[in-house]
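Repro:
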Amino acid sequence: MQGKEFEGAAEALRNGDLDAAGLPPQERLLLEFAGTIAQAAYRVTDEQVDGLREAGWTDEQIAEAAYVASLFSLFVRLADTFGIEPPAEYEPTGIPGAIRRG
């Protein structure tokens, strides 16, 4: 999602607002799956994976999404462990709402 026509969707995703992103149902399901992995991977269910298949995602695509979500979770945990924050020039509008620490 790049370019002016996607700015609103990109900002919504950056802030963790799937409702405001206006995604097609197929893509939203995949992001919800990634979110489940990021928040509590043990909560992924067979029904959730079956729903992805029914939405048209292949097993290879589902596995790729799981790998990417898992790796990002690892990176976030490592950054949290070592207190690593992105340089201000990478986040000119501030830390995204989706990752703000409470």
